[in-house]
Structures are given as C-alpha cells and as structure tokens.
Specification:
- Chains A, B: GO terms for molecular function: mannose-1-phosphate guanylyltransferase (GTP) activity; mannose-6-phosphate isomerase activity.
- Chains A, B: Its EC number is 2.7.7.13.
- Chains A, B: InterPro entries: GMPP_N, Man1P_GuaTrfase/Man6P_Isoase, Man6P_isomerase-2_C, ManC/GMP-like_b-helix, Mannose-6P_isomerase_type2, NTP_transferase_dom, Nucleotide-diphossugar_trans, RmlC-like_jellyroll.
- Two copies of one chain form a homodimer.
- With about 475 residues, the first copy, chain A, is of the alpha/beta class.
- The first copy, chain A, has three domains: about 270 residues, Spore Coat Polysaccharide Biosynthesis Protein SpsA, Chain A; about 60 residues, no CATH class; about 100 residues, Jelly Rolls, CATH 2.60.120.
- The radius of gyration of chain A is 24 Å and the shape is globular.
- At the A-B interface, β17, β18, β19, α11 and β21 of A face β17, β18, β19, α11 and β21 of B.
- β17 of chain A pairs parallel with β19 of chain B.
C-alpha cells in the first residue's frame, strides 16, 4: 500500500567538484558501489509490500534516473519530469496526484534522493511504526534523534504521544544557534527535521489545499497537462512556472494540526557538505576517509577522493578535504567546505563549465569523455550501451575518425551501413550524415578523433533520434 | 678563458611529483619560461669571454641536455655522459680533464644545474672578482651571504682576506643546528656553502691527485676510455663503477690549503624542496605562489601548481603545497615537504612508476603522452619534432592506428612509404615493420590508438635508429 516518492530535484553543488549540475550528488556512488538515489530506492523496497517508486526529477536528469532505476530492475516506475524547480511542496503534490489517480487510499513515503541512512533496519522499522498513524490521517515526519547539537539542521519539538511511537508535533524550529541547539539536545524533546514523510496522498493534498490553496490550485493545473511518454510523465512548463515556490514545511507541515513525528535513530546524514560525508564515511585509525589510489603520511581526519589512473599523496595534513576529478581538484579546510558554493558561483559568473558539467558526459545512449584537446582537434572516448544508438547526425565543421577498441559498432556513413569491430576504424568526412549503433551484447567503446576548425558540442544537426532530441 | 662546467647529475626527487628521475628538476621550467638548466647555462654566457659549457650528466638525460642546449643555440657543447653517478669530485675531474686537453690554462666555473639565482648581475660580478684568485691558483668557492640562520645548508668560515673580495677559507662546517646557525649568522664570518666553484682545471686536478689520489687515478682511467659521439662523450661503465663516490668538498676543498671564498649576495636558492621554491617564487598579497588555473579562497602562504586543462580550487588553507600533475597530485603541509622523499621511496619499493616517469615521456625525436588506457587499448598523443624520425620498428602484440592532427608525416609501413597530413589516418598491423618521420617544418602531432593483448613499452623490436637505440 505504500508508494515511495523519491524527490530527486537537488542540484547538489555543495559536493563540487564531484557533484555538478549535470550529475548531482544523488546520482553518484558517494558511499558504497551504488548511488545515493539507488540506495534510497532500494531502501523503499525493503518495506513489506512496497510498490515501485514515483520519482520526481528535473527533465535534465531523466535519462540518468531511468538508467539507474533500470539497473535496479525497476524499469516501469513513474518518473515525473519537473519542467521547472518549484521546491518540495509542489513536487510532492504532483506525486500525490499521480498516486491518488491509481489508488485513492495510497500512502506516500516521501524521501529525498540524496540522504544516507547507515542503519536501514531501524529506518524500515520506523516506517512500519508510522504506517498506522498515516492510515489515521496523520502527516508523519521522521525526526532523527540528534547525535550532536548540530546547527545545520532544523529541529522538531515533540508534544503528546499519539501512538506507541509517534508524537504530535509541538513546533518546527529553524536552524538554531549553538546555544539553542545544545539546549534542544539536552531537553530530549527535540529531533532533527529530516525531510522524510509518510502520509496519505489524499490527506496531503487536502491539507495543501487548506493551508496553501495557491500552490494546490496551480499544481493541479500543471497535473492536468500530464503527458505520459514511456516511463516519463511530462508537464507543461508555462503552467509549472506559475506555481509558487515553497517547501512542504512552510506550505503544510508548520500549519496543519495533523503533523506527527516518529523519532528514529538510524545513522542518517543529508551529506550536505564534504565535511558531512567525512562524518558519515568509514574511517581508518587516523580518522581518514580515503577512496582511490592514496598515499597518506602523517595525515589525520582528512577526506581524499581521487579518480582512475590518478594517485594523491598527502603529507602532514589535518582536517582537510581533497577531491580530485579529471578536470578540477578541490583542496579545502574541512571546517570551510561550505564555501565551495563560492567557488561554484565564481565559475558560473566567469562563464566556465566546471561547475556544471564533468569531463565525462552522460547521454541516454552511454557517455563520452574528452580525453585530449588541441587547437584543431579533440579526442573522445565514447561508450555506447548494448542496443543503444546515437542520433542520425551531421557536423558542419569537423570530420571524425572512429577506432573501435571494444565491442561491435554498426556504422551508418552517408548511404553505407557496415559493421566495425575491435581494432577496426572508419572516417566520417565533414558534412556527411552518420550514425553509430551498438548492435552487440557488450558495451561498445571507441576512440573518436575530431579534426576541424570548430569543435563545439553545438555543431550538430540531428535528423533522427530515438531519444526525441532531433 | 672561463669554461663553464654544468653539473647536471641530480635526480631531484625532492620536487616530486613535478620532478622525477626521468626528467628531474634541472630540466623543468620551475621559475620563468626556461628550465633551471637553461638558466644556469645562460648565466654563464653573461661572463665576458665565456666558452660554450661542458655539461656532465647521466646517460639517461643526454637527449634532454642536447635539446635544451640546442634551444639556446649552444649545440656543439661538450656533453660528458656519466655511465654511473659518482658524486661531484669525479664529475668535476672528468670535466677538468676534458677542458685541460683543449687549454692547459683553462679556468672552470663549476655550477650545479639546478640552482636559482635571482640577482645575476651580482653573481657575474662575483665571478669577475674571483677570476684573479683562480688565476693565482686558488680554488675559489662562492659563499652566499646568509639571509637567515638556515639549518639546511653547510657553512664556510672566512679567514684572512687574500684579495679585495676573497678570503682564505678557515673551515667548512656541516649543516648546523639552529643555535649554531644563529651564531654563525650573527658573527658575520660565515657564508652558505653553495657548491659553486672557480678554479684552474689543472690546479683542481693537482689538488685532487694530492688529497684523494684514488679518485684521481680511477677517474683518469675512466677519462682514457672517452669516446666522442657527436656532442656526446661516452666513458666505459666498468671503469666508472671503480671510481670512489665522493664530493668535491670532502675530496678536495676541506683538505687543500688553497681554498678561498668569495662572498656574494645574489638571491641564491638550491630549490631543495617545495618550500624553498615557495620562498624563491614571486608571491601575491596573500603570500601565495600560484601557477596555472587556480581559484583560491581564504588561502595564505600556499604554493599551487597545476597543469593544462586542470583547475585547482582551494579554500581556507595556510602554508600548504599543492602540486597537480596528470597522474599524481601532492598535497602537503609546507613545513613537512621534506617527507616527499618517503613518498618517492614508497612508490619505488611498491614497484610503481610515478616516482620515475611522467605521464608525458620525452624521447630524442619528441614526446608522447598516454592520454587514455583500457583493458586492451591505449591512446597516445605523439609529438615529433621537425626533421626527426622514430626508429624502424615492429611490435609483436599490438596494432596501431595513427591519425595526424597537425603537421605532415612520412609513414613507412612494410614496403610502402607515403605522406600523411592533417586529418588523415593509417593502420599499422601487428607484426609489420614501420617508421614515422616528420618531414615538415612544424611539429607533427598525431593520435595513436594501440590495440592488443599486451601494450607494454618493451614490446618493440628496433631495426634501425638514428639515435643508436637499435
């Protein structure tokens, strides 16, 4: 009966340079081998009778969401594409309308896609304990038992018990100062506001209509424009832009008299900074959290992440964060990592791309990585997923050499269609229509050498595209 | 009359990861656009009647030395190739024997290739002031007027004046502790031991024979095996290994009664560590020395170097050294950089290559950079200098695709010889003899995609090689 709703709209610049606008943190394997998004989805599948999730995400991330769900065997989930970001109240409302359509009694488990939960058993248990409350028309929020007087989170104050494990909410409080936070923790009556909820879709919509009717009405107008497109559901952008931007906390939870909190201790983290990731990560005896090829001498309480074929050596560091990626490296004092936002802002105002795109770029058909670049050439490593096909396309300013290094390609070049396999190459002259398809069962990897006077990604004319980009 | 002798045998691991065994720090542009070696050579050309230099270096660096001299228009210099490193006393003896052969009265100006001199006018002036002393058979060492009570250098104590600007050496003292160093500086009688000398070749050899006859005799035996080969002079390795390993300080300077010191203030640095480079570098208002694409927030007294197409962002750092290279990044506390040696040792004992070779590898004909690598393929960017030619070669385990992206190549593949120009490609099958030549006037750049089950550099059979490597 529980329908998981995964809120995946975050743009996650606080974990730059690993997290960037085109592939924010929920889609990265920050802890373990699967992504935060996948871990969140998998968590919902541990509930007894969970349905496949409704995901709400930005249009830009639709192929990433679809692929990451497919990897979990959850193709066929509903993926609601927000044509504009309007915060959590409208996002959850769209999901609630979608769920109510299928099942008027549906209970939603609303989870941000980018949270980490160390103790999933406790979390699942809390959801089970919260379910009767949701069935009794409470809007349940999960309150995290505070481990420290954090000033980076909002707090929820408990009032009277409404069940064995739930309490009426006395009040929501904003991020406190250190003194207030210490007092909250000491009192024992406060929990961290996690942004995770359990309630009936219908009940949420009723409360939204009652307390924030403008959001309700505008969102209902958006939902009326829903256009299913395979797993995706698209909405009208102009209508979406009309929706007031607001969080579920402001729009509903702080106003309703049906808010309940179910406290839980489950080693939760919103991974809101590199420092938070360091806190949540497994650490060695020196307090270091290392990932990749790292040699550390006399280094303590430090987080290091690097990438393939790149080692990082550290000497004499304490409380530092080092994140190396192919095109950008961050080195920051651990207690200053919140200023990474300033770096991202600087990059943005300088018209650069490093805050937005990784060197490796994901596409619905696979990915490419710009491995070298010169004045009149660029070299890319291209990976095409089995069965996938790029658009039928043409470039005005560049010719391309393709060398297959793994797998088998079906190449269309002008009128000709032919197969190319490992260690074979071909040439696509400037101006000639071409297409690349992986007809095999294993990933197709090829090296593309582009040659020409202009090598921008926008020199592309698409004639046909299975992903609707033509 | 003055013959510069450039000692270029250092392996320079203290500036890892920028400096590595195959291309140590003297061959890098650490300050300014030319290398330390080139700056040292150019310095000698500012003396009135300087000859072209005698360079003493390792066989491994012969092409680098030849190329860097050529860039200065000093092709035709003598390059003495040490088949084994035996410290400065034998290296200078070989140079002295070479110089004496041409001119029995030759005066040698002996300079390590990896020192920085900020005030060249003062240095040149000191050499001029020292020349009469050298002519009077003094072995002159240049004493750097101490700027601080450094404990990382040896000191020289002055005795009575022997000219307007020179003093008899009272004694040489080893690297002192902090207390002794402070006392030396305060006394005004001590200078830093720079390792730069001026003396007659004949006089040095006489003193060497007198005080360290074993070194003299063994080195004379090596010199008897000299084999000129264009600019290079080669020596017998077995004979070289017989030479006792010793420094000029121990073998001669501390023992002779003809040692004189000429003090000089010339902003000298031996750039013995990243910290020393930071000291010597131009710094911004925050005390930062930055090179490359760097964004620094709230960062002070920090050195950052990065490479092409890679940005480094720093937040909240003080007194840190960050050196990013394509395959390895160092992040170290500035007062702990001497431990970089331990990193290099760890890499060495783990049988890795990052302490020895850069990703970009220099060859006599140009260079290559391994820009990507997979299970059965490797991608290289190859640059061939105008007029240069690779060996006629064959591989047992790999085929190669070549795509020219700049310049013009003459390709030999089996029986065929043909030209390949920008945006043209060819295929070299496994087992086929081939050769690549830059017949043009501009550098030839090509992308090579190797495909095969074994891609090591040692899968090469050379049939002919203009550089004597066949």
């Amino acid at each position: 009966m529980i329908v998981p709703v995964i809120l995946s709209g975050g743009s996650g610049t606080r974990l730059w340079p690993l997290s960037r606008k085109n592939r924010p943190k929920q889609f990265l394997a920050l802890v373990g081998n699967t992504t935060l998004f996948q871990q969140t989805v998998e968590r919902t599948q541990k509930l007894g009778d969970a349905r496949s999730p409704i995901v709400v995400c930005s249009e830009d991330h639709r192929f990433t969401v679809a692929e990451q769900l497919q990897e979990l065997g959850l193709g066929g989930s509903s993926i609601l594409l927000e044509p504009a970001a309007r915060n959590t109240a409208p996002a959850i409302a769209l999901a609630a309308m979608q769920a109510r359509q299928n099942d008027p009694e549906a209970i939603l488990l609303v989870l941000p896609a980018d949270h980490l939960i160390g103790d999933e058993t406790s979390f699942v248990d809390a959801v089970k304990r919260a379910t009767p409350l949701a069935a009794q028309d409470w809007l349940v929020t999960f309150g995290i038992r505070p481990e420290a007087p954090e000033t980076g989170f909002g707090y929820i104050k408990r009032a009277d018990a409404v069940s064995d494990s739930g309490f009426k909410v006395a009040k929501f409080v904003e991020k406190p100062n250190a003194e207030a936070a210490a007092q909250y923790v000491q009192s024992g009556d406060f929990d961290w506001n996690s942004g995770m909820f359990l309630f009936k879709a219908s009940r949420y919509l009723e409360e939204l209509e009652k307390h924030s009717p403008a959001i309700y009405t505008a969102t209902a107008r958006v939902f009326a424009t829903a256009q299913p497109d395979l797993d995706f559901v698209r909405f009208d952008k102009a209508s979406m832009i009309e929706v007031p931007d607001d969080s579920i906390d402001y729009a509903v939870m702080e106003k309703t008299d049906r808010a309940a909190v179910v406290p839980v201790s489950c080693r939760w983290s919103d991974i809101g900074s590199w420092s938070a990731l360091w806190e949540a990560a497994d650490k060695d005896a020196d307090g270091n959290a290392m990932q990749g090829d790292v040699i550390a001498l006399d280094t303590h309480n430090t987080l290091v992440r690097t990438y393939e074929r790149h080692m990082v050596a550290t000497i004499g560091l304490d409380d530092v964060v080092i994140v190396a990626t192919p095109d950008a490296t961050l080195v920051a004092a651990r207690d200053k990592v919140q200023d990474v936002k300033k770096i991202v802002d600087q990059l943005s105002s300088a018209g650069r791309s490093e805050h937005q795109a990784h060197r490796q770029v994901y596409r619905p058909w696979g990915s490419y990585d710009s491995i070298d670049m010169g004045e009149r050439f660029q070299v890319k490593r291209i990976v095409v997923k089995p069965g996938s096909v790029l658009s039928l396309q043409m470039h005005h300013h560049r010719a391309e050499h393709w060398i297959v290094v793994s797998g088998t390609a079906e190449v269309t070049c002008g009128e000709k269609v032919f197969l190319l396999t490992e260690n074979q190459s071909t040439y696509i002259p400037l101006g000639v229509t071409h297409r690349l398809r992986n007809v095999g069962k294993v990933p197709l990897e090829l090296i593309e050498v582009q040659s020409g006077s202009y090598l921008g990604e926008d020199d592309i004319v698409r004639f046909e595209d299975v992903y609707g980009r033509a």
